[in-house]
Amino acid sequence: MRGTTIVILKALIAVLIALLLVCQFAVLPGMARSLAGMYPYLAYLEVPGVIIGVIFTLCAQVVLVCVWRLLTLVRADSIFTPRAFVWVDVSLAAVVIATVLVVATLAFIWTAPSGSPSVVLLCLLGIVVGCGLSLLLVVLRGLLRKASQLEHDLSEVV
After folding, report:
1. Do 18 and 61 meet the contact criterion of CB atoms below 8 Å apart?
2. Residue 77 region by backbone torsions, left for phi larger than 0, else alpha for psi between -120 and 50, else beta
3. What is the pTM for the complete model shown?
4. Burial of 109 by CB count in 10 Å (0-12 exposed, 13-18 middle, 19+ buried)?
5. Can you give the pLDDT at residue 114?
6. Distance (Å, rounded) from C-alpha 138 to C-alpha 92?
7. 122-147: pLDDT as tens digits
8. Nearest CA to 24 among 63, 62, 50?
9. Are 99 and 74 spatial neighbours (Cβ–Cβ below 8 Å)?
10. Per-domain residue ranges for the chain?
11. pLDDT digit string, tens, across residues 74-133
């Protein structure tokens, strides 16, 4: 892969991480405070909502850092080493944790008397996307394992 492509991807990842940090520390608490003011009967959800939102965005940031590290391995031409599997496994764990958070949120919203149908649909979409990403990472991990084995076998032949 060309160096310029990796540099551009890393720049985009840096921008995404910065935007997620703004969301974590400015947007989420502000939104929660605003919603608690508009709907006083849901004010008790302000702190748990912010905590769940921060953890969810932290999971996204972890995945972005893992992609950054994998791009570094690609650039160093060492993607087929055991170090790559660690970053794929951490990415998978972060996606699973984020999906579990969405499932927990849906379970709570489902039992709450004021659950909005649009929020329920959004949570269901999040669950489907999270499960799909998890399965995709499992498949990609298998492909990485196979490619690593093939490279190892090829290096023994040469």
Report:
1. no
2. left
3. 0.88
4. middle
5. 65
6. 8
7. 999 999 999 999 999 999 999 999 98
8. 50
9. no
10. 3-157
11. 998 888 888 899 999 999 999 999 999 999 999 888 887 666 788 889 999 999 999 999
Closest-CA residue to 104 (of 29, 52, 41): 52
Amino acid present at 20: L
CA distance linking residue 33 with residue 53, whole number of Å = 13
Query: Contact, 133 vs 95, CB < 8 A?
Result: yes
Tokens representing 147? 């490619």
Structure-token pair, residue 13: 């990842």
With tokens 């394992």, the residue in question is: 145
* Separation between Cα atoms, residue 98 and residue 93, nearest integer Å: 9
- CA dihedral defined by 67, 73, 78, 81, rounded to 10 degrees? -50
